[in-house]
Amino acid sequence: MHIVWTILLGLAAGVIAKLIFPGKENMGWILTTLLGIAGSFLSTYLGQLLKIYQPGETAGFIGAIVGALIILFIISLFRRKAR
Known about the structure:
Blueprint: H1 2-20, H2 29-49, H3 61-82
Helix pairs in contact: 1-2, 1-3, 2-3
């Protein structure tokens, strides 16, 4: 059940991040879910590195959205550079 919950939260975080981030990203719902899950991992490890979270503590839903926004920003930088 933990995996299902992770997928659903990842989907929700990815959708919200895509709504906040300006521009159009051509992603389906699977990539949007992976974006939210990757954002959660990014914010967890970045937060632990910056001493915001303790070891073993994970980022919450807001952290997942912030991590997904960071990933979308990095993707947009690479897309601009490719043009």
